[in-house]
Task: inverse folding
């Protein structure tokens, strides 16, 4: 599983597989995931490995 800091969340590298992205996403708390949806929707709106409902939420913020 990819490693990431709990103090500073960065966008997943483009080289990650959909499984790597999903592991990154599911390792976060719901609050961390919501923070990314609210503040960085472009990171996940079209990213394979992110659950559809979260991608949709990010895309709605992006609009």
Result:
């Amino acid at each position: 599983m990819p490693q990431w800091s709990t103090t500073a969340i960065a966008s997943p590298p483009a080289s990650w597989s959909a499984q790597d992205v999903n592991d990154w996403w599911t390792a976060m708390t719901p609050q961390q995931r919501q923070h990314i949806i609210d503040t960085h929707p472009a990171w996940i709106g079209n990213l394979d490995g992110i659950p559809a409902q979260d991608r949709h939420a990010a895309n709605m913020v992006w609009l």
